[in-house]
Amino acid sequence: MTDPIVRPPKKDPQKVTRPPELPPLQRSRAALAMSAAASRGAFELQCCKACGAWMYPARDACPECLSVDLAWKPAPDGGEVIAETTIRTTVDLYFRQRTPWRVAMVKLDCGPSVVCHLHGDVEVPGRVRMTAQLDKGGNAVIMALPAKRTPNMADDPELRELTASPKHRRVLVTDGRSAVGQAVVEALVNAGAALVFVGIAEPWKPYPGEDRLKAHENVQTFAFDLTDTTSVQDLAGEIGGKTDILINTADHVRPGGILSAPGMITAKDSFDVNVFGLQRLAQAFGPGMVGRGADGTNSAAAFLDVLPVYALANTPDFGIHSATAAARLSMLQCLRSEMRAGGVRVMSVFTGPIEDDWRQPVPPPKVAPGQIAKAVIAALEGGIEDSFVGDVAKDVATRFRQDAKVLERELGA
Amino acid sequence: MKETTTMNGDALLSALASGIRGGGVRVVDLTHTLAPDFPVMVLPPEFGQCQPFRMEEVSRYDARGPGWYWNTITMSEHAGTHFDAPAHWISGRNLPAGTVDDLPLDRLVAPVVVLDYSAESAADEDFLLTRAHLEAWEEKNGAIEAGSWVLFRTDWSKHLGSDKYLNLRADGAHSPGPAADAIEFLVKERDIIGFGTETIGTDAGQGSHLEPPYPAHFILHGNGRYGLQCLAGLDQLPARGAILFAAPLKIRHGSGSPLRVLALVPAPDVV
């Protein structure tokens, strides 16, 4: 059983913060597909379409029959550890900071043998469940987990490197006025976050849920407005050095397309919150987080954005809103690359239409704030880069991968 | 509005200048600082919204401009301490000279009467100023002269920074303002230039439930009069005898504008 990690002591101001090193970054182009699957939380391997053989590492041709007709697909995740070793020293800068490091050779049930990270609770020899996770450099690595859950399993130091668990971390939630923000705050408290900072725009306006939000012991609220650069900079000045996870739940949503919603003001408001707000957040908090990517148990770990799945394709009844979402997604892609330098994960939680006042005319299924909160925690604890909440979001994502143009025609019909 | 004086222009201005320079006349600021956290009018969310003041740094002696500091600002015409022109309201839409680029200049510098209802407003957050109040005020202080600005002192500006400033509840905002008969009286019987308040609008927080809705906006602007709101420092003004400077920005077809409102007041006598 893993020893539960304890809440870290207060930071020693005389100690240099450990600089964030990254694990080896190079991957073949073929191997990127494994990272793409891992970014969605899937364990995929290549399978030969001609002979059905599974293979690892990524290949350009089947090692059994030489066919080049290979497909990435979800692979059976069972296996047997056949050997293990513990690395105690290395010249690699990333692993040097983290030894000892347990490594195994696992014979997969589907055929290949793989060298992988090994969870501390796995007994050797023994059955394991394989998972593909993104490492701090954003590349898929395979880890062998105990076949059955063990106590404090998530606290294994190797596994914690591959997730952004909120346990003992200090988290900023940007919009505490919304039901989504409040549900996320509650879920974080339950998931063991050390502190939750909550931004409240225009605090002079009352909002539902205020009393309940402020009643939590580990929750601190701040006046904070994503449309006001000064306000974002001020809060970063106050808590930026101890923000380990940043969760942006803000979303300015108004119905209407381009022709049906005349004028620029509402569109500007939407872009100001959804797109430039994200930029303000990233510029104010990002550099500090990048610098603290390896700062011990409560290192900076993730910048997570909850955004509409219509980032992938426009739904014209919320046309401007979709356009902001697309811009937001593009920003996240840029930010993901920029924050990788610190090993800080940029995560997207894509949602279908949310059950709220603005989406009353939208037919079900709609997503409840609690579902989003659950997905946010699952993304952090699972180290999942792209999650999709609700049937609509999952469906849109699937169809986007099949043919984005077909999706555009369907949504725009 | 023309009055005869015994002094010529040179002598008048020179007397004023020496008053400002040497005492006797004090310049008073009636303006709040324009800042991003200054609240704006709250409307139902399906309507177009009032944009609060925002400031983005262009450069500050850095790579974006090594030797200079400057900002880009954005805001609604109706953010911060601001001026409402007649065209702001539908009742004033067809009037000539209804927008801020086209206002008679002699209206922008004018004598000001200050009605102090701060005690009443402290006792009743929905205090309504009525014609009866004005008649009682005139009884004590004399009639309000034509061509004056009338400012309604409530000390509400002192609530800025607390929830009380907007005082929003589920049934809307709660703050003092004028009743329709008071504005009718000031406009039709006293021929004022405009009406100014310390609250977020010239109307009471619950002004939408009065008849007509938003009587100050409706009646003032329908008759070519102006509004000033979010004023500060009215407690520095005498009931009468001060001169108000309230010139909005000259925005083409503008419905209003943030502005610096100044007053010249008689300084306390030096003993």
From TrEMBL, chain A:
Transmembrane segments: none annotated. It holds the Pfam family OB_ChsH2_C. Residues 72-131 form the ChsH2 C-terminal OB-fold domain. InterPro entries: ChsH2_C (IPR002878), ChsH2_Znr (IPR022002), NA-bd_OB-fold (IPR012340), NAD(P)-bd_dom_sf (IPR036291), SDR_fam (IPR002347), Thioester_dehydratase-like (IPR052513). Residues 36-67 form the ChsH2 rubredoxin-like zinc ribbon domain. Residues 1-23 are annotated as: Disordered. This is Short-subunit dehydrogenase. The lineage of its organism: Bacteria, Pseudomonadati, Pseudomonadota, Alphaproteobacteria, Hyphomicrobiales.
UniProtKB/TrEMBL annotation, chain B:
It comes from the Bacteria. GO terms for biological process: L-tryptophan catabolic process to kynurenine. GO terms for molecular function: arylformamidase activity. It holds the Pfam family Cyclase. This is Kynurenine formamidase. It comes from Breoghania corrubedonensis. The lineage of its organism: Bacteria, Pseudomonadati, Pseudomonadota, Alphaproteobacteria, Hyphomicrobiales.
